[in-house]
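agent> fetching stored inputs for the zinc ion docking request
agent> found them:
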Amino acid sequence: MTADQPDNRPTDRPADRPNDQTNDRSADPQADRPDDRPNDQADDQRAVAILMYHSVTDRPTPETRGLSVPVAAFADQMAHLAAEGFTPLPFSALGSAAHSRARRPVVITFDDGYADFHENALPILERHGFAATVFVTTGWLADAGADAAGRPLDRMLSWAQAAEAAAHGIEIGGHSHSHPQLDQLDDHALREELVRSRDLLEERLGAPVRTMAYPFGYSSARVRRMVRAVGYDTACAVANRMAAGAADPLAVPRLTVRATTRPRTFARVVEGRDIPLIFLKDHALTRAYAVVRRTRYALRRATAPHHALTSPRPSDPHRVPAPRRGNTPHPDEAPASESRETRP
Ligand SMILES: [Zn+2]
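agent> prediction call returned; pasting tokens
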């Protein structure tokens, strides 16, 4: 690790200046820099790529395929980070002294808690001494027993494997209990999802859990208020842009890594020099889809019988995004009819 190597690059960018590479560049005075960087975030140690992985496997299920990364590709990506001197930090270390000291900070996250994290990703992370964060859906765990909830998409971690990962320095965060679309739940069910997941993780792993990732990557203002109220400090979203010092700690954007992410794209994304077109497109679609979802929730509130709101079906991760014919999407992906971007 290179956490004690000071980084003396200037950090004088005003905290309130947008650091969103997807902003309209015509309004950005930095847009005409000779090296064609959209802004100066490559010079800002607070701007950090937060990578989002799901399954790391050569044998994905039809539902995890869209967001799985082959083992060799993951190994190459981690080797690239090591060779380029990046310092992976746990997600909760963002904004901490360790973040300030870190040379070329980056955050590596995994959603859902697939067994292949333990089998395939952990040995590679260990080889490099890399920190990472796994956001676990507690009701999906292989031996959840009486707490089982929802419908796992592949073999999931066991509690023992999650504990072993934690013992090896992997940060474990929450990802709800049953992987519902949190913004579609009423307040009572929403609180239950957040609290049950957190309490189970703390009880079984013996460490405080103050961070989480939203299932499907999306949160509403109401969801974020509840997340804060029940005691989480930070939460991951998906916006496919860099996270900056001024990012909302309850909606920190992440960058999707998938099987189709080429080495050159990966290198450019973690550098923060450029966000390729595919990510720009993802971000635009994320925003568009959020509007669709808000409208839907309002309609359901207005028209659904009361029980439809108080008895959600969190066990069915597909109940809003309908499966695409012939190509079952990961529940963290939106249906093709609305957008094709990723939502963890
Ligand atoms: Zn997920």
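agent> quick read of the result: The domain at 33-310 is CATH 3.20.20.370 (TIM Barrel).
agent> awaiting further instructions
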